[in-house]
Amino acid sequence: MSELTKLLSILDEARHRLIRILYVVLPLFAFFLAFQIRFYQAPWSPFPIPYPYPNLFYNVTAQVFAWLRADMLPPGVILVNIGIGDSVIAQMEIALLLTFVFSMPWIVHEIGAFLSPALRRNEKQLLRTLAIPATILFTIGFLFALLWLTPFTFFLLFKYVAAMGLVPYLSTDSFLTFALLYTVAFGIVFELPVFVYALTRVGLVRSTFWWKHWRGAVMGCFVFGMVITPDNSGITMILIAVPMVALYFGGAFFARRSERKREHRELLAEPA
Predict the structure, then answer these.
(1) Which residues fall within 8 angstroms of residue 66, CB to CB, at 6 or more apart?
(2) Furthest-apart CA pair in the chain: how many Å?
(3) Which residue of 1, 190, 208, 220 sits 20 to 30 Å from the alpha carbon of 101, by its own alpha carbon?
């Protein structure tokens, strides 16, 4: 088989996997924009039963936005729609995030199926081993930021607004950009231990490297926090960087532990 034939075969497989991903992503995206979730209290059920109802305006994204506003913003903060299309863009952004979250298992499955032929047996085993911890860590980071850290950050920042006697106004675009980016960024930050552990597990980076260069890693955490946060206060940078440093050392600890176990197994396997 020629190199061109191999390349065309890979591209055809990538196209096939992308189409399969779109089969899930596009209907989900359309659903979030075209339906709302209503609840029916059946006489025989102790809990309300959710069901979809067509609504192009107060749809799932509008319901999520209302919940985010009530959950994250301190009392008295007024959201304003400045741009004529800000509300439409806000619904699109929320729909994209929801689509990404709910379709992620299918996306990961298709990407794994595409990469599987090129991976060695130990690499496939590593991916299977790390899939559940990576998912759990991302979920913990995402929910931690969604339910506590982001509301606390808004509360803290608007304390300064109140201290200066300013009117607590916030544009819809600024609120949503901050809330979504900050929350997703924290979910990604929680993947750091998996990244550190995986590089050592496959033998690309020695565990001593993580401990030797910890100062540079700490600096990198603060730089990442500065770049990823959408405000210039410095408070949000610290709130991301400090947990990130702790996660880095946690990953370095488990990387060293894994490396010592591998060295011990290799020592036992050596002939006497």
Answers:
(1) none
(2) 78
(3) 220
CB distance 168 to 161 below 8 Å: yes
Q: Would you tell me how many other CB atoms lie within 10 Å of the CB of residue 15?
A: 10
Tell the residue number behind the tokens 């995986």, with chain if given: 198
Q: What is the pLDDT of residue 1?
A: 52
- What three-state secondary structure class fits 37? strand
Q: Which of 13-17, 21-25, 199-203, 227-231 has the lowest mean pLDDT?
A: 227-231
Domain ranges for the chain: 1-186, 191-262
Helix and strand totals (H; E) in the chain: 10, 4
Which three-class secondary structure state does DSSP give residue 234?
coil
Contacting residues for 188 by C-beta, under 8 A, at least 6 apart:
138, 141
pLDDT tens profile 206-245: 888 888 888 998 998 888 878 776 666 677 778 888 888 9
CA distance 116 to 201: 18
Which amino acid is located at 173 in the chain?
D
Pairwise CA distance, residues 184 & 261, whole Å: 34
From residue 59, how far is each of 134, 180, 213, 221 by CA, in Å?
Answer: 31, 18, 49, 38
**pTM of the shown model:** 0.78
